[in-house]
From TrEMBL:
<comment type="similarity">
    <text>Belongs to the UDPGP type 2 family.</text>
</comment>
<dbReference type="Pfam" id="PF00483">
    <property type="entry name" value="NTP_transferase"/>
</dbReference>
<dbReference type="GO" id="GO:0003983">
    <property type="term" value="F:UTP:glucose-1-phosphate uridylyltransferase activity"/>
</dbReference>
<keyword id="KW-0548">Nucleotidyltransferase</keyword>
<protein>
    <recommendedName>
        <fullName>UTP--glucose-1-phosphate uridylyltransferase</fullName>
        <ecNumber>2.7.7.9</ecNumber>
    </recommendedName>
</protein>
<dbReference type="InterPro" id="IPR005835">
    <property type="entry name" value="NTP_transferase_dom"/>
</dbReference>
<dbReference type="InterPro" id="IPR029044">
    <property type="entry name" value="Nucleotide-diphossugar_trans"/>
</dbReference>
<dbReference type="InterPro" id="IPR005771">
    <property type="entry name" value="GalU_uridylyltTrfase_bac/arc"/>
</dbReference>
<feature type="domain" description="Nucleotidyl transferase">
    <location>
        <begin position="7"/>
        <end position="273"/>
    </location>
</feature>
<keyword id="KW-0808">Transferase</keyword>
């Protein structure tokens, strides 16, 4: 299967309650990180991995997402008139970067249900799932490695990250089998948010998956689990336990990741991204040093 056939699915139907009141009328995926909405970073990551067909799973009050990736002729004409070619390029880029489709999740029944809503669009193709709360730094590729591992083995591939054992209760956690093959491990099972003394490892599941279309059949028969929702973790657990299937593999990510689902981490992400930019970094770093000296 060629990479070109792999599609991307971005679940974006959540209410974003942690960021209220900012997300009362604005989708949390549209909250800006410096001067781009968070979801644009996710779309750019998929495009950089060679994916040109992207499905966004939306919900109520999410029209701003589709508006952002649509053309705005009147704005573009105004920028042309002003000769503002830099901003014009950034506006056009967001509407030209990929073939983006949308489907409503309807009743929110969990991540597994959101992924299942992609079945008609994805068909029998393999596909990547990218969660918008997890941003991977563009300088630290992850998705390409995951796709390559899936194409090589046929396995479902999940992204893993080593975390402090004291924080493992915040994540789904992988039970791995045998020694790693470089940064790739065979996943024997998954545990959703275990207590520290019950965690099978310190390898946390983060928001990137490359899945075979066979996962849809598993999700169809997956009963609601934790929180009364259909959990993608439960479906992956079944794939991992299938002795006749290709199983589940994990790619350990050792790069830079930004958690935009938490207010403090969101602020940190903005600061980190801005300090690395040539146009903002020098002045911002000087100001941060001055500000830190006043604390």
């Amino acid at each position: 299967m060629a990479k070109a056939r792999i599609k991307a699915v971005i679940p974006a139907a959540g209410l974003g309650t942690r960021f209220l009141p900012a997300t009362k009328a604005m989708p949390k995926e549209m909250l800006p990180l410096v001067d781009k909405p968070a979801i644009q970073y996710v779309v750019e990551e998929a495009v950089s991995a060679g994916i040109g067909d992207i499905l966004v799973i939306t919900g109520r009050n999410k029209n701003a997402i589709s508006n952002h990736f649509d053309a705005v002729p009147e704005l573009e004409a105004k920028l042309v008139e002003k000769g503002d070619h830099g901003r014009l390029a950034s506006v056009v880029a967001s509407s030209d970067m990929a073939d983006i489709h949308y489907v409503r999740q309807g009743e929110p029944k969990g991540l597994g249900h959101a992924v299942l809503r992609a079945r008609t669009h994805v068909g029998d193709s393999s596909f990547a799932v990218l969660l918008g709360d997890d941003l991977m730094d563009a300088r630290d590729p992850l998705l390409c490695t995951m796709i390559d591992e899936h194409l090589r083995t046929g396995a479902a591939v999940i992204a893993l990250m080593e975390v402090d054992p004291a924080q493992i209760h915040l994540y789904g956690t992988a039970d791995v089998d045998g020694a790693p093959d470089g940064d790739v491990v065979r996943v024997a099972g998954l545990v959703e948010k275990p207590a520290r003394d019950e965690a099978p490892s310190n390898l946390a599941v983060i928001g990137r998956y490359v899945l075979p279309a066979a996962v849809f059949d598993v999700l169809e028969r997956t009963a609601p689990g934790k929180g009364g929702e259909i959990q993608l973790t439960d479906a992956l657990q079944e794939l991992a336990a299938d002795p006749d299937g290709p199983g589940v593999r994990g790619v350990i990510f050792r790069g830079r990741r930004y958690d935009t689902g938490d207010r403090l981490e969101y602020i940190k992400a903005i600061v980190q991204l801005a300090t690395d930019r040539e146009d903002l970094g020098p002045d911002l770093r000087d100001w941060l040093k001055e500000f830190a000296g006043r604390l």
